[in-house]
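Translate sequence into structure tokens.
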Amino acid sequence: MHRRSLLALPLLAAPGLARAQADWPQRTITILVPFVAGGPSDLVARAIALKLPERIGGTPVVAENRPGANGAVAAQALARMAPDGHVLMVGSIGVYAINVALRPNLGYDPVRDFTPITLAVTTPNVLVVNPQRVDVRTPAEFLSWLRANGARASYSTSGVGSSDHLTTELFKQRTGTEATHVPYQGGAAAATALIAGDVQLSFQNLGTVAGHIAGGRLRAIMQTGRERHRLLPEVPTAIEAGFADFEVTSWQAVMAPGGMAPALQGRIADAVRWALLHEETRQRLGNIGLDVVASSPAEYSAFQQAEIARWREVVRLANIQPV
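Result follows.
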């Protein structure tokens, strides 16, 4: 399909905007990934890169990993790019919401310096325990256990300021409980430590622990999505368990450099959303626990700003310091 036939476009008052829209893309599109290969940001970027050429007339799309500084290296690079639609970035909740709450000298502003494209995917966090160390099966039993053992309890995370870290801190704030934070380098290491019995509990991304739950190495107590997840249909949500409004998702979003013309933003958003909503993409990402959202730019912008405010307050109350 020729790329000029993708959308029925309204007449534009500004000829420059019309040209920008009609001329995109002119060359290979690069999707920056602020982390190493194999993680959720990387998998989402590569899924988009696989299908997006079908929607834009065959122009190549490549994913490029630029890890460093908890995502800041790639984010700072994106902020300096021209807003012509040839460089995008798939980034995480950390890059687009948590880092700015945790690190005042971040080097980029996740709202001002970027143009929103779409909230790509979400996944719930799952409260898991080592079944050999914590003999509980329900959220009520877990809460009783934590209140009795909080001084001795410890939890693993994928790092200071990660989604799983702040989810646990939010849970502690909501329930008035305590547990000692033990950060690791990534979710896989955090899960391994839990299985080994080095810690007793963790709120981990569904994709990280689904296999361990199925294999009996970890026990799922509850998950933080709004509804029960198809991969864990027997595991209740935190809201079902009586923790009002305790809905937390780890997420990935697509951004472009700041200052993009609205017409071009709209065209890119429509194309990226088409790639995400393609059945092959949905299945590819769904198999690893990532649920496609593909929101509008306006919907994502409102969501992002609410997330920044939420996690800024959690960081403040927990007095979390960057490392």
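Note: The chain has a mean pLDDT of 91.
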